[in-house]
Specification:
35% helix; 2 domains
Amino acid sequence: MLNPRRHTAFSGPLASLVLGMALSVPAWAQTPPSACPTLLKREAPRLQDEKPQNLCQYAGKVVLVVNTASYCGFTSQYKSLETLYGQYRERGLVVLGFPSNDFGSQEPGSNKDIAEFCENTFSVKFPMFAKSRVKAGDASVNPLFAELGQRTGKTPSWNFHKYLISRDGREVQSFSSITDPMSKSVVREVERLLSAAP
């Protein structure tokens, strides 16, 4: 049974403090994620152990999807991707990396090799998935990339092509390999989508 005195004490300064803390949380974080967008209604094997991961776990976040490679002129973008992720993850950004050997055979290693390279060379912390095909027209193309290509009319023509997806999955933007993840154009759109109402 509630102690009336304790209940009265909590309803004073402590209650005001708790209420103030709750009000300081951004509006998008106070509400649970909406239903999983169609784009994310799929599974992909995790890079490190190939355990299937439901991409719906990222519903309600701004998602940056990138096809990566370990031996490419753009491989240094891993550093920018990690910087972007570290800078905005608390506000709701997630970066999803999908290694592919489609372009220039620049990702020849196994999933284990790729995981070790990402960890040891760039200290990658954002989620990475098993190697897959991302090139348009391939019969075994990664379904996520197939749909992203259909939605934007743009498909990867090289490593480190980027797709930026809004929290509700309705808006998808495409950025070419030459656009660095920390470029003004990408950062501006990330901030806009993070600030938008869910």
